[in-house]
Specification:
rod-shaped; mainly alpha; single chain; about 90 residues
Length: about 90
Protein backbone atom coordinates (compact mmCIF):
# COMPACT_ATOMS: atom_id res chain seq x y z
CA UNK A 1 0.00 0.00 0.00
CA UNK A 2 1.64 3.15 -1.13
CA UNK A 3 0.12 6.41 0.02
CA UNK A 4 -0.45 8.99 -2.66
CA UNK A 5 1.28 12.25 -1.77
CA UNK A 6 -0.71 15.37 -2.47
CA UNK A 7 0.74 17.74 -5.01
CA UNK A 8 2.50 20.94 -4.01
CA UNK A 9 -0.56 23.03 -4.85
CA UNK A 10 -2.77 20.86 -2.63
CA UNK A 11 -0.26 20.98 0.22
CA UNK A 12 -0.07 24.76 -0.12
CA UNK A 13 -3.88 25.04 -0.01
CA UNK A 14 -4.00 22.88 3.15
CA UNK A 15 -1.26 24.98 4.75
CA UNK A 16 -3.08 28.22 3.89
CA UNK A 17 -6.25 26.90 5.54
CA UNK A 18 -4.33 25.96 8.68
CA UNK A 19 -2.62 29.36 8.82
CA UNK A 20 -5.98 31.08 8.37
CA UNK A 21 -7.43 29.03 11.22
CA UNK A 22 -4.46 29.87 13.48
CA UNK A 23 -4.81 33.59 12.68
CA UNK A 24 -8.52 33.49 13.56
CA UNK A 25 -7.84 31.73 16.87
CA UNK A 26 -5.02 34.13 17.67
CA UNK A 27 -7.38 37.07 17.12
CA UNK A 28 -9.94 35.53 19.48
CA UNK A 29 -7.30 34.88 22.13
CA UNK A 30 -6.00 38.45 21.86
CA UNK A 31 -9.52 39.78 22.39
CA UNK A 32 -9.93 37.56 25.48
CA UNK A 33 -6.60 38.71 26.91
CA UNK A 34 -7.57 42.36 26.35
CA UNK A 35 -10.88 41.80 28.16
CA UNK A 36 -9.20 40.05 31.07
CA UNK A 37 -6.59 42.82 31.32
CA UNK A 38 -9.34 45.45 31.48
CA UNK A 39 -11.14 43.46 34.19
CA UNK A 40 -7.97 43.12 36.25
CA UNK A 41 -7.27 46.86 36.09
CA UNK A 42 -10.65 47.79 37.56
CA UNK A 43 -9.91 46.58 41.12
CA UNK A 44 -6.62 48.51 41.11
CA UNK A 45 -8.50 51.73 40.48
CA UNK A 46 -11.01 50.90 43.19
CA UNK A 47 -8.21 49.94 45.58
CA UNK A 48 -6.52 53.28 44.92
CA UNK A 49 -9.71 55.18 45.71
CA UNK A 50 -10.23 53.16 48.90
CA UNK A 51 -6.61 53.70 49.99
CA UNK A 52 -6.76 57.45 49.43
CA UNK A 53 -10.07 57.78 51.24
CA UNK A 54 -8.72 55.71 54.12
CA UNK A 55 -5.63 57.92 54.33
CA UNK A 56 -7.78 61.06 54.34
CA UNK A 57 -9.95 59.60 57.10
CA UNK A 58 -6.87 58.65 59.12
CA UNK A 59 -5.36 62.10 58.78
CA UNK A 60 -8.66 63.72 59.71
CA UNK A 61 -8.84 61.57 62.83
CA UNK A 62 -5.28 62.46 63.77
CA UNK A 63 -5.97 66.18 63.40
CA UNK A 64 -8.72 65.97 66.04
CA UNK A 65 -6.46 64.32 68.61
CA UNK A 66 -3.89 66.78 70.00
CA UNK A 67 -1.68 64.15 71.67
CA UNK A 68 -1.53 62.02 68.56
CA UNK A 69 -0.88 65.00 66.33
CA UNK A 70 2.04 66.03 68.58
CA UNK A 71 3.51 62.55 68.22
CA UNK A 72 3.06 62.60 64.45
CA UNK A 73 4.61 66.06 64.14
CA UNK A 74 7.58 64.89 66.25
CA UNK A 75 8.07 61.91 63.98
CA UNK A 76 7.82 64.10 60.89
CA UNK A 77 10.35 66.57 62.31
CA UNK A 78 12.72 63.70 63.10
CA UNK A 79 12.42 62.38 59.55
CA UNK A 80 12.78 65.76 57.86
CA UNK A 81 15.68 67.10 59.95
CA UNK A 82 17.45 64.28 61.77
CA UNK A 83 19.23 65.37 64.91
CA UNK A 84 21.81 63.58 67.05
CA UNK A 85 19.18 63.31 69.82
CA UNK A 86 16.93 60.23 69.45
CA UNK A 87 13.48 61.11 68.12
CA UNK A 88 11.76 59.75 71.23
CA UNK A 89 13.45 62.49 73.29
CA UNK A 90 12.55 65.34 70.96
CA UNK A 91 9.34 67.01 72.14
Amino acid sequence: MSAVRPSSAERLAILEQKVSHVETELGRMAAKVDEMHAILLQPRRALGVIAVSGLVGFLTGISHCSDLSAIVSTIVRAIVSPSPVPCCLVV
